[in-house]
Amino acid sequence: MRQFIRGIAESNHYQATHLLQILRQIQSRYHYIPEAAIEELSGLLNISRTQIISVVEFYSFFHLTPKGQYELLISDSITDHMLGKENLLDYLVKKLGVAIGKVREDGLVSLDNTSCTGMCDQGPAGLINGYALTRLDHPTIDKITELVNQQIPLDEWPCELFQVDDNIYKSGLLLGQQIEQGAALKSAFKRGIKETLAEIDKSGLRGRGGAGFKTATKWQFCSDERESERYVVCNADEGEPGTFKDRVLLNSYADQVFEGMTVCAAIIGAKQGFLYLRGEYLHLYDKLQHILEQRRQSGLLGSNILDAGLDFDIEICLGAGAYICGEESALIESLEGKAGIPRNRPPYPVTQGYLGKPTVVNNVETFLAAAGIAVNGCEWFASIGTEKSKGTKILSISGDCARPGIYEYPFGSTIQAILNDCGAVDVLGVQVGGPSGTFITNQEFDRKLAFEDLATGGSFIVFNANRNILDMVHNFTHFFAHESCGFCTPCRVGTSLLQKQIDKIVEGHGSAGDVVALEELCQLVKNYSHCGLGQTAANPILTTLERYPDLYQSRLKEISYEPGFDLDGALETARRMANRDDAGAHLTQTVASVATLPPSLAVGE
Amino acid sequence: MSKTITIDGKTIPFEEGQTIMDAAMAAGVYIPHLCHQPEFTPHGSCKLCTVKVNGRNCSACTYPAISGQEVLNDTEELINDRKKITQMLFVEGNHFCPSCEKTGNCQLQAVAYHLNMLDNHFPLFYPERDVDASHPDVMIDHNRCIFCTLCVRASHEKDGKDVFAISGRGIHKHLIVNAESGLLKDTDMAATDQAAHICPTGAILIKRTGYQVPIGQRIYDHEQIDQVSLAASGSRPVSALPPSMAVGTENIKNGK
Question: Where along chain B do its domains lie?
Fold first, then answer.
């Protein structure tokens, strides 16, 4: 092992910033991060062991105890549930003989849930040793079970298990026509660097991650900083459940994305760029490396790009299962080899980003659009869309529709038009922008896709009339509690409290006053959390509570008091200690039994 | 002419580079806080010091003072919400003040009194957490840790040791120590380290000193936390305390 660790450390130049990449390789080889590896790395990278452990325990894909040789994870997105995930999971447990969250006794296979893997258009989905599995059903699970039990190496598994389709159904400005390799850089150099920034400014391009900060302004701020070193970062940590457009852009339009990053580098004066690729998209890694290599060969990356005196290269860094790393300052922390905890702002990344240097962080789609604008000019882009939202938006459509996949729309398109195109009928509502976005009902389908109306990073999940809204809220609320980084009190404790309170109401234990308490808690988490995760974690509850107040009220019991937890379950520890399991050591949780409890036992609110 | 901001309508001067908290403390305005200590790099995680700056919620301990800011601090809404955030800290851990040797010297308890917290409001989590009594002189009761990272910062910034770190994610966050065994006794921790005295709660305690000062004669038995905090920051002196009572550097300063 020592030799293996030394080898990886050496190939990563003993840089602590590469800790995630190093740990990924160790996890991949040993299926956990052994104590000996931590000790060894601590010396080689000159960082404390606690720093390594805190990174291991932060990311979902790293473990301090051994997982199976085949680590199987099943995507827990609401869309996977809508495609019958629960049934599949039960089937998997039976077939593989392993419980959820456990390793099989022979150590061969482990099974667990994981946050949305970005395959909502071809779920139910999963990951095996980090590689994406799509369209899981009983026959594929039979096949997987066989392959696992026969211990067939992963690279000998049939490739159809790993088949990932683009599913592009509607192309517009960006998807319709890719620029020629090098065209954006040539145009930029010909037009002039300053003039190209002005062109992007005039195009009105705003960040495609959802927040919509003006791209040219961000680039201008970064280049205005008095520093010699600057960085360009492409945020491909597409973790918002229901989003998968970046997967498609990086699979089929990566050249143009890299070119957009290179144009940005030319404008701000950066020598180094990073593509932060979410760990769930490991299947794209080799292909992207190949494209980068090919661009170096063509003189589009490396030193003296296109003989114009620009030196710039791009490194791909893989994430390790943490939604929070989609937040730009958390992403930078992660790039530096640390836990993805959002920084205090100010300073903003354009002033102090990667290694404290001015850094531009933009979405994959933003760089794609910037490259298009560099070639085709601002009018090409600005003539489409609304006054405040120029151009088009690429949507990831999933859920109850005939054709889930990728759709590109001019800003200003109505929700109804989008629903018609993807073949959605009998629609109850749409979750626009993922769990952190907004739920809209079928009374609001004349609303428009735009920063000034419905802003979205691209997630668009359709729910038909047979769906239960509270199932969705339950799923999203659990998601945020799972993904909270835990830095600040309102989000760390608040998302867990929201989860408990929603569980209580959904499971029918809510009583009068519980909905009011829920709403009050939502406001607290929203108003006091440190970053966007906490500030939006209550959105699924708030947006549905506003639209369906009766739905929540209908789940409440008609009594004024109901215990907020399982009384009998709470006695479990006491039973274990007293070594008792007789009838007298159990409580039946009914209204009657609560009423007959002696006052001293009437705990709770 | 020095630069100024206003806090609750009162004009407060500040110097370039100061945070809102710095300016407030220097001017004798108390903003509740737990993860902040003036001599350590601000952390901004407990969110008790949230103030409204020109209508927007900001952490006073990390947000820079900028000329002309209108800051709201002592409002009913903020006080009420700070109380709820304090209640969150109580329910996520296991805090039983009457049986805790830190009672009366505990900043979490003192802030709770200051904010008039009378109950837990939220359901208790009852997490299962350990106690590490392995070290001869210092003990860790994880039940009372609020993840303020003051011990982490003190060990790193003052003691030059890196004994502590916060690990895990979300509600599973926990304090870890720098030893293969995971036990404090195997670290280079000493009872004289600043990190051993900085804990605002009873999570890190010096052994055999817990009851040297009887209940009733402890720091916050006499004064509210706002008075103690402002005194420590130089606004007003506090009476000397025995070294064993030195909870947090705010008190070390005055006690030693």
Answer: 3-74, 97-255
Query: Is residue A401 located within the same domain as residue A359?
Result: no
Strands ordered across the beta sheet of A405-410: A168-170, A405-410, A392-399, A459-464, A427-432, A438-441
**Structural domains of chain A, count:** 6
- Report chain B residues whose CB lies below 8 A from the CB of A58: 167-169
Shortest distance, CA B255 to any CA of chain A (angstroms): 31
pLDDT tens figures, A429-459: 999 999 999 999 999 999 999 999 999 999 9
C-alpha atoms less than 13 angstroms from C-alpha of B182 in its C-beta half-sphere: 13
Q: How far apart are CA A451 and CA A205, in angstroms?
A: 12
Same-domain check for residues A504 and A445? no
Contacts of A354 (CB under 8 A, 6+ apart): A231, A233, A274, A332, A335, A336
- Assigned architecture for domain B97-255: 2-Layer Sandwich (3.30)
Find the residue in A nearest to B149 (Cα): A487
Q: CB distance B44–A49 less than 8 Å?
A: no
pLDDT at A157: 97
Note whether residue A283 is domain-resident: yes
| Tens-digit pLDDT profile for residues A516-533 | 999 999 999 999 999 999
- Give tens-digit pLDDT for A384-427: 999 999 999 999 999 999 999 999 999 999 999 999 999 999 99
State the CB neighbour count (10 A cutoff) for residue A224. 12
The nearest CA of chain A is from the CA of B252 a distance in Å of 27
- Enter the ipTM: 0.92
A528 close to B (CB below 8 A): yes
CATH class of segment(s) B3-74: alpha beta
Is residue A517 domain-resident? yes
**B109 CB-side CA count, 13 A:** 24
Tokens for A370? 């910037």
Q: Are A354 and A233 in contact (CB under 8 A)?
A: yes
pLDDT at residue B254 is higher than 80? no
Domains B3-74 and B97-255 share a fold: no
B219 in Cβ contact with B228 (< 8 Å) = yes
**pLDDT at residue A508 greater than cutoff 70:** yes
Whether residue A373 sits in one domain with residue A282: yes
Chain B: residues touching A (Cβ < 8 Å) = 42, 44-48, 50, 57, 59, 62, 64, 81, 84-85, 88-89, 91-92, 122-123, 125, 146-147, 162, 164-173, 176-178, 180
Contacts of A564 in chain B (CB under 8 A): 123
- What are the pLDDT digits (tens) for B186-230? 999 999 999 999 999 999 999 999 999 999 999 999 999 999 999
* Domain around A321: 184-382
On chain B, the residues whose CB falls within 8 A of the CB of A346 are: 64
The answer to whether B132 and B15 are in contact (CB under 8 A) is: no
User: Looking at the structure, do residues A206 and A280 belong to the same domain, yes or no?
Assistant: yes
Q: Peptide bond preceding A346: is omega within 30 degrees of 0, i.e. cis?
A: yes
In a domain, A559, yes or no: no
Which pLDDT tens digit goes with each residue over A553-580?
Answer: 888 877 666 666 677 888 888 899 999 9
CB A494 to CB B92 under 8 A?
no
A354 with A407, same domain? no
Query: Binning pLDDT at 50, 70 and 90, where does residue A513 land?
Result: confident
pLDDT score for A590: 52
